[in-house]
Request: fold
Amino acid sequence: MKRMISLRDERLKEKDRVKAPVKKKEDPSAIKEREVPQHPSCLFFQYNTQLGPPYHILVDTNFINFSIKAKLDLVQSMMDCLYAKCIPCITDCVMGEIEKLGQKYRVALRIAKDPRFERLPCMHKGTYADDCLVQRVTQHKCYIVATVDKELKRRIRKIPGVPIMYISRHRYNIERMPDDYGAPRF
Reply:
């Protein structure tokens, strides 16, 4: 391996040498500016004050599928978990994702078309449901997100004030709510 001359070597000409960077002295009388991330006014500490009954719950594709496997009625189990009226909301992207799954998930499609579900139109291109849910929750912090997907949960946890509903031990649970409710086990 060849050895190279350092750019600070005395044998180099003055114009080829690297000059040491000169540090600027800070003016002590200058006002120091610091950017602090702005949190929405609806947050009281880490809890969202915009959330209240009736709860609007954004439902993900896999949440419907796991609810079917666990033999849980979506609307009734949500009400058992939160002890209040719940309005499940489904976006066009989630509906498109369920339709793409085909015949195997026709029960999930029938549940998603239930008139008790509120249908939310999407104005963006593509049908990737996870991006759609994260974008909608970031804009409007009045939703609870119902999902079982670990990656989506990780993305939503980064958004302050958005509770997550998930399935564990054949019942719905919720995290990041002021009173962490849990559905009673029957």
In short: The radius of gyration is 26 Å. The CA atoms of residues 174 and 180 lie 6 Å apart.
